[in-house]
Every structure is written in structure tokens, then in C-alpha cells.
Amino acid sequence: MALPLLAVASLYVPFSQAEAMHYQLNPEHTSVIVTWTHFGFSHPTADIPNSGGSLVFDKDQPEQSRVDVTLPITQIDSHVAALTKEFKGAEYFDTAKYPTATFHSTKVVAKGDNKFDVEGNLTLKGITKPVTLHATLNQQGMHPMVKKQAIGFDATGTIKRSDFRLDKYVPAVSDDVTLTISTEAYAK
Asked: Which residues of the chain have pLDDT under 50?
């Protein structure tokens, strides 16, 4: 009698536990915005389009979640042609030598109310530093247009330019730079 009960229990366990979902970030619906303070007068922005990567999310065990993102720094756009050219040059991002930046998460901490701290390593200009992104789960479920499971997050974080040898004009132009990210990802 115990054997059939054990067999039924072993069938039940895999179905009762949610599995982590694997997603691919959609570059067309991923926005990476960089903001800084310009001599205290304004807060200009630059976009890094076509960012891509993968995301694994486990709603029941968020600590098992992870994210890996590649940012094509060669495509940065400050909305001012001369500044964009300067950003791509050797005194800033040196995109000829360092065409991409990467973020690899090391820890995800649930903060409640669909909020998570995503700790990880940002590599920019060959330098790797820890960064924490404060993320909000916007929605998870079937996407009505692409007919796939989808997930969407918004996240913010702050980095110091000087940590990555991007310290031209500091402190007149802020050392702290805010990253604002919004992404939509589809099940693999």
C-alpha cells in the first residue's frame, strides 16, 4: 500500500513546485538610460539602445533568479552629436577598445511588493565593479501580441564614473550616474 502512495507523491512534487522561467531580453523593448548632473544646471541623458541578454526568474524562489546583459556602448547616444562622438573616444568609453559593457547578477533579494535588489558585477572599460539595481516586476504572463510567456521589469541603480576611469570634469559634472532600465523579455 505504501508503494502506490509513494509513486503518486513523487509524481505530485514536480507539478506542485514552480520552475524558473528562462527569458531572452527583447532589444526593441529594452531601454537603458544614463543620467548625470551637468554643472548643477541640468540632468542630461544618454541612451544605450539594442541591449540584450537573458533572464531567469523564479517567482517562488527569487534568490535562484539571475540576469546577464550586454550593453553595446558603441551605440550610445547623448542626443548631442559632438558629445556622443566624445563619449565614444578614448577619454571616455574608448569604444574602439571596449565596445560593450556587461552586467552579470550575483544575488537577487526579494524586498516585497514585487520589488527586488539585483546585485551583480558591471564590467565597463575592462573594469569590474559591484552594482545593485533596484528592480520592480511590472508583469509576468502571456504576452497578447507575441503569444509567448513574457516578463517586464523596471530598474534603477547608481554608479560612480570614476570607478570606471570616466572621471573627466568630476566634480563639476557629477561622478554619480543614474542608470534607468526598462525591459521586456520573452520565454526561450
From this structure: 1-17
Sign of CA dihedral 27, 186, 180, 97: negative
SS (H, E, C) 100-146: EEEEEEEEEEEEECCEEEEEEEEEECCEEEEEEEEEEEEEEEECCCC
Q: Is residue 135 within 8 Å of 116, Cβ to Cβ?
A: yes
Q: Which residue has the cell 542630461?
A: 44
Residue 172 CA to its chain's centroid (Å): 28
Are 137 and 151 contacting, i.e. CB atoms less than 8 angstroms apart?
A: yes
Q: What confidence tens digit (pLDDT) does each residue in 139-151 have? A: 999 999 999 999 9
Question: Helix (H, G, I), strand (E, B), or coil: what is residue 26?
Answer: coil
Q: Identify the bridge partners of residue 105 per DSSP, sorted by sequence position.
A: 120
